[in-house]
Amino acid sequence: MDNSPAMLAIAALQTASYNISLMYALVWTINSHYASDSTKPLTIVQLATRDESRGIHNDLIDDVLGLASSASRIKFLLEGERLDETAESVVPLTVNTESVPVEPARTIHMQTTAIWLLDSIWAYYRLERRLVLVDGSFKRNGYYCIVYTGQERDRLDTIKLIFRRLFAIYVINVNVFVENRQTGQVQVYSYYPYRSQRCQSSQPVHYATFYGGLGTAPQIHVDNHTLFFDHKLDDMHGCPLVIVTMQHRPFVIIENDDNAPNGRRMHGIEGMLFYLLAERMNFSIQIIEQTDHDRGIVLPNGTITGAMRMIVDGEANITFGAFMYSQERALYMLPTITYTSFPIVLVVPGGHQLSPLQRLTKPLGDMTWLCVLCSFILGLGLIGVLQVIVAVPRLRRFLLGENNRMPCLALWCSLLGGLHQYPARRNFARYLLMLWLLQTLVLRAAYTGELYIMLQDGRVKTPLRSLSQVLAKNYIFHMLPTLEIIFRDMLPADRIVVVPTLYKSLEQLRDDENDVVQIVAPLLQPTVDRFNVDSGPDKTHLSQLPDPLLTAPLTFFMRQHSYLKQRINKLLINMMSAGLVHRFRRMYLDRIEHMAVMRKPDREPTKLTLWLLAGIFGSIAILQFIACIVFLLELGAAAPHRQRLRRFMDAANRYVA
Fold first, then answer.
1. For residue 30, what are the contacts with CB-CB under 8 A and spacing of at least 6?
2. CA-CA distance, 6 to 622, in Å (whole number)?
3. 63, 112, 301, 462: least surrounded by Cβ within 10 Å?
4. Cβ-proximal residues to 556 (8 Å cutoff; 6+ apart), any chain
């Protein structure tokens, strides 16, 4: 005799206290949808408010589990159970909570599939309280079925109220099973928030009908894209979405356009991206411009400001405008996936102008000057060893060449580009001479070329080069609220100034000619390039550290639990895969990156004033002063009674020159 769970369940149907078609409809839904489209366990919850309904629900659950679980295609969770991932088994939570603490709901995976059994609107209110809990058991973007067994006359009005309240908390993927009292058939109702000429609608739609029979598929009454849970956001039928954004080039560029709704139209990287989303999802755009550029912060008293407040209060659906992801924003708003990222650079003061002496030493770096000095000292040391210490004529001729009586003078002249009067005639000495001449040739060319540029440009300054220099000079950091948490552990609180927009701070840094502004500002690299372009060719460009501080991910933000997230995320992934996001980046960045480094074509070079040439004139004056001293010493040494001075000058003329 066959005692399988399926046969036992079918045998028990003869005494069932519920509609058999309802049980068949649930079994088909579990086996044909939940068991194939989800890998998570299915939760079945009964929330009856009457004892009679509770008994009917329990019988229905028992028989549904007996038929559906026989296929072994899905795991079930009843109310008060959770999935133990370590043991891969279902563990009941009916233990003594005093001895074994129950794991909080927020620490386990919230369910996205469930069947809820209700018998009245009061049972739904109990369910809604669970849905709105922060650490509840169900996500609002899941796929759920409601089995309604209420016996009131106007059950459709109850379903309308349920749909209206579900739509208010952003639960749209829900189907309601209701038994038809006259025919015994099971009717399935759903609702479409966006329909032709009906936006924000929660009116019930007769979606499908189960005519009975185990394993019989329902008859679908609407044009759907999937078998059971339809895609309700593929076509929003031109319904409007309200966005709050701000002018932030090159990400968002808002311009007047008489042909656009509300007379406003967006361009820029994010503006073009959002218009493409609107085209694919078929919704219209209502723009609210945040003129004060306040993206929103949470004040100590809990008050939310700016664009974030409009999203939290439901005044707008989506906000963007170079919004960086942050934990605070994700706590109050729902972020999409990151579609792109940009480096954050630190804008610093331009520094003071180079002094005349600095212009003479600046063309070559410290390491280059050190290498030149080491090479020159090495040459002098080798000459000194060969001339004084070793004094082997054959070795001297081999290294320095024949008839080279003044090698120090030859070394100095070749360094400055003079003639070598006693060239070597042996291969090894010629090889050494060739290496030295090649080195001095490259150094002289690099030095003179860079020196010419520095003398021509009187605006050359000495900016900061590293973050350690900025921290050592105790600059004040002006930053947006999102970056405060990053720099909070690095800087004392009195050196951080949070501002809603950095435009005034950037103007101060740009117009600072005397290095008196003691502020720095971290912001996105495209924002720096766009500011330089908007400043024009006659204005000084912003100075920044050569290395970025970090990389900032950008995202869109919407209201918590918004049903738009899944659809927008899918489209953003497709756009990134197709290269459209990269194309929008290059459309706006190529131009500003090129123009940011351009100089005005007709700008004349700076005149070589006495101040710019003071370093050269000062060096000449010092050398002239030394020449005068040497001249006076030579005159003194010519006297017959000053033999010591004469011997000193002869030695100097022989070895120093």
1. 42, 64, 68, 74, 115
2. 108
3. 301
4. 270, 274, 318, 319, 320, 323, 335, 336, 339, 568
Q: Which has more confidence, 636 or 528? A: 528
Per-residue tokens: 266: 């967006």
Q: What is the mean pLDDT of the chain?
A: 80
CA 562 to chain centre: 22
369 within 8 A of 377, measured Cβ to Cβ = no
Q: What is the C-alpha to C-alpha distance for residues 245 and 258, in angstroms, rounded to an integer?
A: 19
Is the pLDDT at 610 greater than 60, yes or no?
no
Over residues 359-376, the pLDDT tens digits come to 677 677 777 777 778 877
Q: CA–CA separation, 140 vs 71, rounded Å? A: 29
Distances from the Cα of 344 to the Cαs of 246, 253, 347, 583, 585, in angstroms?
20, 20, 10, 21, 16
DSSP state, 47? -
> What are the b/e assignments for 325-345, b being 16+ CB within 10 Å?
bbeebeebbbbbeebbebebb
- Cβ pair 24, 66 in contact under 8 A: no
Over residues 428-454, mean pLDDT:
71
**Token pair in block for residue 196:** 């032709």
The DSSP-derived string for 150-177 is ---S-HHHHHHHHHHHHHHTT---EEEE
Whole-angstrom Cα distance, residue 319 to residue 296? Answer: 11
pLDDT tens, residue by residue, 85-106: 443 444 333 323 333 333 333 4
Closest by alpha carbon to 132, among 175, 164, 169, 159?
Answer: 169
The β-bridge partners of 267 are 253
